[in-house]
Amino acid sequence: MEHITTPKVENVKLLDRYANRKTANGTLYLTATHLIYVDASSEVRKETWILHHHIASVEKLPLTTAGCPLLIHCKNFHVAHFVIGQERDCHEVYTSLLKLSQPVKPEELYAFSYNPKMSKDNREIGWKLIDLKVDYQRMGIPNDYWEITDVNKDYEVCNTYPPEIVVPRAANKATVIGSSRFRSRGRIPVLSYLYKENNAAICRCSQPLSGFSARCLEDEQMLQAIREANPGCAFMYVVDTRPKLNAMANRAAGKGYENEDNYDNIRFKFIGIENIHVMRNSLQKLLEVCETKSPSMSDFLTGLENSGWLRHIKAVMDAGVFLAKAVKDENASVLVHCSDGWDRTAQVCSLASLLLDPFYRTFKGFMVLIEKEWIAMGHKFSHRCGHLDGDPKEVSPVFTQFIECVWQLMQQFPCAFEFNERFLLEIHDHVYSCQFGNFLGTCHKEREDLKIFEKTHSLWPFLLQKKQELRNPLYKGFTAYKELQPNTLPFSFQFWCGMYNRFDKGMHPKQCVLDHLLSCMSQKMKLEDNASELENKLPFLDGPLPSEACSLSKVGSAASKTPLLNTPQDYEGEAPPVLTNGISVGNIDVMADVDQKNKENLSNHQDLPDLNATNVLDSEAKEGEPQCH
Amino acid sequence: MEFAELIKTPRADNAVLHGPRCPAVRGTLCLTGHHLIFSSRRKEGGEELWLLHANIDCVEKRFVGSLGTIVIKCKDLRIIQLDIPGMEECLNIASSIEALSTLDSITLMYPFFYRPMFEVVEDGWRSYLPEQEFELLSSVTDEWRLSCANKDFSVCPTYPPVVIIPKCIDDEALRKVAVFRYGGRFPVLSYYHKKNGMVMMRSSQPLTGTNGRRCKEDEKLINATLRPGKRGYIIDTRSLNVAQQARAKGGGFEQEVYYPQWRRIHKCIERFNILQESLIKLVEACNDQSHNMDRWLSKLEASNWLTHIKEILTAACLAAQCIDREGASVLVHGSDGTDSTLQVTSLAQIILDPRCRTIRGFEALVVREWLQAGHPFQLRCAQSAYSNTKQKWEAPVFLLFLDCVWQILRQFPCSFEFNEQFLIMLFEHAYASQFGTFLGNNENERSKLKLTQKTMSLWSWVNRSEELARFKNPLFEANSLVIWPSVAPQSLQLWEGVFLRWNRPSKFLDEAQEEVLNIINYNRELQAKVNALRRQLAELETDDRMQENLTLPVMNGVSSQAGNGLTQTSLKQLPSRSWQWEGEERRKK
């Protein structure tokens, strides 16, 4: 609070970026966490909330006759153009915002003060909602080839990996330690995803410290162990996601890439995804295009092309598709790395998992995927998102690109995801909001040091609570699609207006199909309640009405096509009593075990753990709904 | 029969068909007077292709040894390849297809030979008559009249025999105005905005020439649409420069001195070969299989297709804005008044008039603003994106219009009774069809061809409930408001349903459409069920009350029980059985 000198400024204008006539006049407030603008000129009270953590930049523009303009760019691509009457006020707001938006100490982050009035128990249950061990169990691990080891429990192997990692059983401790010495920052090859049907695995690591000629026996043994963990295929791919030139340049610094001659039966391949700096600049250019005032079609398309943004999105997607195809079609295991193995590698591995496994396209699965490939494996959210005052060259939209790839997939496969676009936007918002602990810090060790799990809340239960508005009404269920094979010809990629021009409502379709269908879903629930209520009033009538015989049979067929998994009322017969009792989250493990044994059942009960968890939280978490703007 | 002369080899066995996005099929190829037919020899799931020769835009042939390959590029943008064994057969077939797809005489076209296999419930040729339109208009205003001055097409050869003009203009004055307008296309009523009584008229350019000729009748005609003291807008679809240049050729624009109550706005919409080239470039870009993103975006940009879309929509929004927001009447014209003018007037009506967003209303719009208004379909749609011959008259004017409608539909997905498929269907039939609707360039030509007697109307087919079901938008909820589309580049998209239709699988998108339909239908049926249950309950309650009133108190319980028991059995039997039966059937599948 010490940064706020002027908590309230009146007579502030908010300019509409696209229509000059719609200038709002109102009052600007600064609170400890938000900038709040209340529009007094419109008939209905309209508020604009901007979280301080969302502010990417604040600019004071040259004085105009109307006043002193203050331009705020947000990390969620909101752009607010205020005009403040007094220069002095403007300056004070400006300096306050500079400080508020760039906290220096982690303790200043919103998550440490955010208090949704939730009991301690529920907070802890929330953190246990996503358990990565369950996901490994789902893949059948541990098994004959893979084991979960705590070799990194004291972070001796790698301080940016989690304490528990999955490695081939054949790789003993000496191999692991030896390999870690040969890999940049000790990030040894570990399992990311095991494709149960053919034992092909996706593994990830950082670049080897090969320089021009260095070798490491343990590292070679490690790769051999990974290859041999997939007896169905005689070779494995090693994929370097960097452009070849970048990888070669790294050799001069004692790093580099695998020499095919030194490793048995590997097929080495470069996939040129550009580095974080290129991506940062690309996004910058894209945003400039998005902000251009009334551009011509030509300006826009040329700008889009010159930004290179979609080219990069396609590169990431292509890499993900390559991995998925290698695993599925060639039965081959793949080892992926880039430089440190926490940016491009995370993008590519998580995308490939999403393509291969429908579980990751559910609410729960997507949370697991992010926890596993991004949070646990040490994607440096804090640096990439600029949570704290730090090196601006470390900031890069790596995670944004992943989220966009998922959106692009949703465009091609509208029925394959349990969640909708808003779920992606919510996650994207909270990666930057620092309201929840999940994305703070850079790796598991740092999160432990920050006492994230004791002091903050997890995002996931809050999102599950909003499931009804974040779901995809077109979702056809867990079993409808298995592997996705997206088209990656350039025309299959669209500009994502809903993300980069999200706050320019005038550009979006004026009627929203999603809203329409979501309201259909809630209407459906009401009607079904009505129907059963009426049927109960006619107790002697347990068969359908004669006049409805024909249409009812159609209802039956329609119902069989509509997703059976999404809502409690979709369960055949009565809703399972567990829903109201609320079993503890510990039961998730049990459920997951059952899952493995019976995949068909899995699809029917998939939602149970989620629902339990939300219901448990529901009772007390209502007041503390996440605020997001 | 003259077609036989053109078909040297009517049949080729062992041909191989490579269609878009499907595996090659071996089968037999047959040529008939109007169709290329390919049927696979597979017994089960045998595939057949029936392709109208009129749909063929261009034929290419090449040889590897004695195996010939014919590449057929269609006006609906599909590309198919046929491998035909035997050089001579291949050459014969290629030249036959070429000849049959470029027949000179309209009367040899398929619509004159087509015999419908369906029962005609409603004759589409009589579905949308100007007299009916006028009747609707007269119920709200008496300032207009039907003029038959053009009944023998002598005043304006490209106008229909009856037109709607201001009441105060007699036919004599009308003839004078016609002389003053290019091609005789005097200003006529295009749209009447019921909300405020403002109108949109369309015409061709005035023939002012270099010495600034004027025509008092013309001024009187258009001034008749103005309210006292109010100004009107003339939207010229040419740039000022082009309009000025037109004077040298005898054309021109309305000069301020003679039309002081009118404000002229120039909105440049491209025409003719520029549009045709744009289409060719766009389709070429869409067929490019290279994996280079920059190349795709730069080709998309260079095609200028979306630029044209933006320009047309912007002009249409402007016209709609003048009428609805400014409360002013509007006159729209370019040079001929048969292309960009119609794009603007018809799109403005989509924006303003909810009726035009229904299926019947849209069909009426196409008839009124395109067919009767004299858009030269025969000339414009003679060739599509693969044409090699550079003729001057082809242009995808109507396709651009449909694309603009699609853009608005995408922005207002619940405001249209029809879906994207309906628009795609119209695109296909405008270029090649078994129906006579889009033949000829104007009503004059159509009446000479006696299309109404000799061919079937597209609307006779479309408006049957079996067909309509395919074209209905499940999300439609009548919206009586004016709908303002966004023309920001971010809001406009490539129309994938047409341009990428043959280049990418649509399975998953089709499934999504089906799912939308399922959700909506399920709710409808649920609602019907709830209503029926309510009725049932209400009936039973009244029954009970009546019985209570009629029977003795002692008998009451017994009789009502018996009554209920009876109902129960009769209700239970039939429906539940059929319900289970259906369920089993499904499971078997």
Textual characterization of the structure:
The complex is a heterodimer of chains A (629) and B (589). With 629 residues, chain A is α+β, with helices and mostly antiparallel strands. Helices cover 42% and strands 13% of the residues of chain A. In chain A, the strands form three sheets. Chain A has a seven-stranded antiparallel beta sheet with strand order 4-3-2-1-7-6-5, covered by helices on one side. In chain A, strands 10-11-14-12-13 form a five-stranded mixed beta sheet, with helices on both faces. In chain B, strands 4-3-2-1-7-6-5 form a seven-stranded antiparallel beta sheet, covered by helices on one side. Chains A and B meet through helix 8, helix 9, helix 20 and helix 21 of A and helix 8, helix 9, helix 20 and helix 21 of B.
Topology at a glance:
The complex is a heterodimer of chains A (629) and B (589).
Chain A: E1 8-15, E2 24-30, E3 34-39, E4 46-51, E5 55-60, E6 68-74, E7 79-84, H1 87-101, H2 120-128, H3 132-138, E8 146-149, E9 165-168, H4 173-181, E10 190-195, E11 200-205, H5 217-228, E12 236-240, H6 244-251, E13 266-270, H7 276-291, H8 297-307, H9 309-329, E14 333-337, H10 344-356, H11 363-376, H12 381-384, H13 398-412, H14 421-433, H15 444-449, H16 452-455, H17 459-465, H18 467-470, H19 497-500, H20 513-537, H21 549-561, H22 578-581, H23 587-597, H24 599-605, H25 608-621
Chain B: H1 3-6, E1 11-18, E2 25-31, E3 35-40, E4 48-52, E5 56-64, E6 67-74, E7 79-85, H2 87-101, H3 130-138, E8 144-147, E9 163-166, H4 171-180, E10 188-193, E11 198-202, H5 216-223, E12 232-236, H6 240-246, E13 262-266, H7 272-287, H8 293-303, H9 305-324, E14 330-333, H10 340-352, H11 359-372, H12 377-380, H13 397-411, H14 420-431, H15 443-449, H16 451-454, H17 458-462, H18 465-471, H19 496-499, H20 507-550, H21 553-588
Parallel strand pairs in B: 11-14, 12-13, 12-14
Antiparallel strand pairs in B: 1-2, 1-7, 2-3, 3-4, 5-6, 6-7, 8-9, 10-11
